[in-house]
Design a protein that fits this description.
Rossmann fold, five-stranded parallel beta sheet, 52% helix, 2 domains, elongated, binds zinc ion, Zinc Finger, Delta Prime, domain 3, alpha/beta
Amino acid sequence: MSDELWQDHPVVLPWLKERWQYLCDLKRQGRLPHALMINGPKGIGKACFALATANYLLCKSPKDDAACGHCRSCELAQSSGHPDLYHLQPDEPGKPIKVDQVRELTEFIYSTAQQGGYRVVIIDPAESMNVNAANALLKMLEEPGKDTVLLLITHRSGQVMPTIKSRCQRVDCVAPDGEMATQWLATQLTMDSQDAEQLLRIAHNSPLQALAYKQQDYLGLRSKVLAGLADILKNRRSALDVAQTLHKEDLDLILGWLYGLVNDIARLAAGQEDTELLRHKDVQNMLLAVSRRADPQRLFAFADEIHEARKLVMFRLNPNKQLLLEKLLHGWQGLR
Ligand SMILES: [Zn+2]
């Protein structure tokens, strides 16, 4: 999401520098594979990394292991888009990449590069290719055109076909450690490190997600969700009522928070009343109150239920959002 922030001037974030160096070394040695799988959790800068790699490969005179920023290729990359760079992604976020979209790639891959260098394809995310699309891509991975590099971004490599995976070299990207992420976020948002740390926790330790939370007012949505949950506990509003106000929002985010909250409650209920460790520390009073009354078995069953619902959303099985949310909010009500 916030990866888009650096579309014009993609930067390699500090915690991915080592992986970057590795790729640059491979290129210098003429050992760059024709397919790379850029793998790692969401929100740590993989899309930016892929774009920086593309620009670096397309640049006519890279300098100090980076695109020069001035040549014709770099100018194209920064303005209208480079003709030798192809982005393959779902038509709409969350939808699959279809076989026709992969077929359209064929022409690009087997043609001559317009600027006479590399041709680069970014597939984002690779796990969104359906089976037919993945099979169509497989053929290209087996016999790619000359000087063609495919960059497959994946947040969930377990969902990518093994035959695809085995034809790519993996570039495993890891999330930064807490201190590095906190420092980086605090600098980006000019906030103190304590606030940055709390924001990171809510964003499941993903620095870019945390940045987006702040910049795209996801914190506003979170407040709305928390207020709804509190209202349900206090019988001020029904689960149905709250579901109605939330079902058009980003369900993936909401379920992620709900799951995190229930985990926090489970931790408290298990006797670890150390609130410092809570992900949603800012609502610790509500969490403590629920944890003191909640039946552990019910708590775990509810966590499972949220997990299943997240899978439905994640695998794009198009559940009825309002119904799904209403059911979960009833489950939340049951914790009282
Ligand atoms: Zn350049």
